[in-house]
Amino acid sequence: MLSAWTLARRAAALRQWGPRRVLVFPRPDGARTEIAIADPDAGCWAEAIDRATGLDSLPGLALCLRLLALIELLTRARALAGFFDVTAEGIDLHPSLLAAAATVPLNAAARFDESRVTRLLSRTLADGGARHRIA
Fold first, then answer.
1. Whole-number Å distance between alpha carbons of 58 and 63
2. CA-CA distance, 128 to 85, in Å (whole number)?
3. 124 falls in which pLDDT band (50, 70, 90)?
4. 75: how many CB neighbours lie within 10 A of its CB?
5. Torsion angles phi and psi, residue 90, rounded to 5
């Protein structure tokens, strides 16, 4: 996750924007779940992962969706504020937050369940130390 995060941040800094994408997943009941990656920043991150690992592979697709879900989670989960800092140089992420993003399942909307991530991280003290510097 850390390598993918770094790669995506670098692509964003270089303004390597990607195309709008629509991911379509067939469901067992015959319906489809569609996820649009329309935001320019999200498109940039998806493009970076596509170039590195390929969105046509399950690992690449999973990595991309996890990264985008982590960003989305950070925008709404106030309980996670102690696990990251936004600075002028980038974002400092606590290692346990990256570990959670690598292991907690995504829901049908390709998002993390905030309460599940919070429960997993509740055992970790966010004391400001042991963060990864992401530039």
1. 8
2. 9
3. low
4. 6
5. 150, -150
